[in-house]
Amino acid sequence: MFYLKIYLGDGSRIGTMDGCLIRSAKMNEGPRITAVALRSKAHWGYSQDFLDACVPDLTIDEAYIRLNPVFVAEWHNRIIGFYSIVRESDGEYLDNMFILPEYMGKGLGKTLWDHAVMEFLKRKVHTFKLVADPFACGFYQKMGAVQMNEKESSTFPGRKLPVMIYTVDKKYEFCES
After folding, report:
1. CA 132/CA 113 separation, integer angstroms
2. Contact call for residues 83 and 96 (beta carbons, < 8 A)
3. I need a surface site. Which of 37, 53, 148, 165 has the fewest CB within 10 A?
């Protein structure tokens, strides 16, 4: 469990998210997780046609949860963010990281990122890649990820997405008990 201070846009504090926790997703939570991804993506002003086309790529279902580590941030029985890691032949990747818009800029993204880094360390992965939405690129750069190239979108041919790489900073340490 962690505590997260919540601030309004003007910097005034409105309280803490006492009781917010990050945990493994349950098999039946796919629709709730998918809803977070879609709301988060919509926050950036994409058209409805664009969002509709993204649904297959943003859908988290039971099969996906069974095959991949998926972690949710939950507060008062509400999923407010999540991330997932995928295993591919050439390594493990940060596949998704989404937060409900009303929790953006309040520290939850950094908390999820830190949790993800620790999960990679548990798997003995010290460098990982991710494909970022262009609007999220600044967040990942702030976390220390570096853009290495671009990849064509599977949903929209011709649209380029930043491919980023992150090497775990020495400030992170994972100790097995």
Report:
1. 14
2. yes
3. 148
Q: β-strands 127-131, 160-167: how paired?
A: antiparallel
Amino acid at residue number 39:
R
Residues 6 or more apart whose Cβ sits within 8 Å of residue 175:
none
pTM as predicted: 0.86
Cα separation, 15 vs 168, whole angstroms: 31
Strand pairing category for 146-152 and 5-7: unpaired
pLDDT in tens, the chain (177 residues): 334 444 434 443 434 455 678 999 999 999 999 999 999 999 999 999 999 999 999 999 999 999 999 999 998 889 999 999 999 888 899 999 999 999 998 888 998 999 999 999 999 999 999 999 999 999 999 999 999 999 998 888 888 999 999 998 766 665 554
Helix (H, G, I), strand (E, B) or coil at 169: coil
- Euclidean distance between the first and the last CA atom of the chain, given in angstroms as a whole number: 18
Gap between the Cα atoms of 101 and 36, Å rounded: 9
Within the chain, where are the H helices? 30-42, 48-58, 62-67, 108-122, 137-143
